[in-house]
Amino acid sequence: MDQPPRGHADLLALVARHAPGEGRIDTPYPGVWFWRADRPFAKRKSEALTLQLAVVVQGRKQASFGAHALPYDAFNYLVLTGEAEFESTVLEASPERPYLSIGVAMPPDVVARTLIALADSEVGVVEEPVPAFVSRLDAPIVGALVRLVEAVFDPAERTVLAPLIVEEIVFRLLRSDAAAVLRRAVRRGDEARIQESMAFIRAHAATRLTVEELARRVAMSPSHFAHRFRAVARVSPMRYVKHVRLHEARLLLLRGARASEAADRVGYASASHFTRDFKSYFGVPPAEYARRLTPQEPASAATSPG
């Protein structure tokens, strides 16, 4: 009979401890969250905004992309390969044995850097990557997730170690046989221009940016630029702009800025548009996010924005 990989019991205990109630539970580290369900539920519309890892530690789930369904459990992990809409269904859960999982959204700049380092050199017809794949869960991935969960709840480790562990997870996922199609999609020659464009976006995200302007800066046609950007970063150029803005806004909120002030400073013309985007990305409105994750400590105590 199949056994979960080494370290799985430790991961299960950690997720169960930090997910005492049903629904999505965000951690102090952006892009890492838990899910708990005490009973099966029917199809729920979901959206991936970047490359994303989902690991079930107890129970069973299914992700559906139209007629294509991918079931997975404690022996397998699901990777969403980029922006995608899908339906998720919890197949196995009970109050005595709840469905428990951990999700990790991979930063596009880390994905791009890793894919460029691992890109296959062969030239030929490049397949369009599937929206998701399921692969066998192994001890190195489980071990990295255990270390990540432990790190995100310690302020010093959250700042120093958590980003390094996320990079390790990205490396292990993209090095797998199942991710070969993603590596083949990165063609030699365009990497430097895409990375240059990403750096420009990070430096100028609060200004008005368009695909046409970004493509012109790196001497590419808009259509070719958008296609190559998505292949390397696993998100569209304008989705990456939004990613950078929202993460900068998140830091401003945790430093005490009001939602309207954060929206204005990161380049949103509409506070309501900002609130919709923020809730879609982080799961809760800006004010609630700040309230949940701002440490309730004396003013003299040192805190970390996470």
From TrEMBL:
| Keyword annotations from UniProtKB, A to Z | DNA-binding, Transcription, Transcription regulation
Is rRNA processing there in the keyword field?
A: no
Instruction: Enumerate the spans annotated as HTH araC/xylS-type domain.
Output: 195-292
Gene3D superfamilies for this protein: Homeodomain-like
Report the protein name in the record. AraC family transcriptional regulator
Q: Name one Pfam family in it.
A: HTH_18
Q: Which domain of life is it from?
A: Bacteria
